[in-house]
Amino acid sequence: MDEPKHDKFRQLAESRTNKAIEAIARIGNLSNRSLYEWDEGEVRKVLKALRDSVNEVEQRFTTPRSRVGGSFKL
C-alpha cells in the first residue's frame, strides 16, 4: 500500500466523516417542534435523501463508478 496515499485517505476520511456527522446532528435539531413545523412526508423525504446518499457512498466503495451526486430539495 502506498503510505502517503493511505495517510491522505485517513486524514480526509476522518475530517469529512466528522463534518458529515455534525451536519446530520444539525438536521436532527430540526425535530424540535417548539422551533420548527414540519409534516411526516417532509421528514420521510429528508431521511430518504440521507439514506440514498449513504447507499451511494457504500456502492462507490464496492464498485467504483463515476460520481452521480445531486442536491436535495423538498
From TrEMBL:
It comes from the Bacteria. This is Uncharacterized protein. It comes from Roseibaca calidilacus.
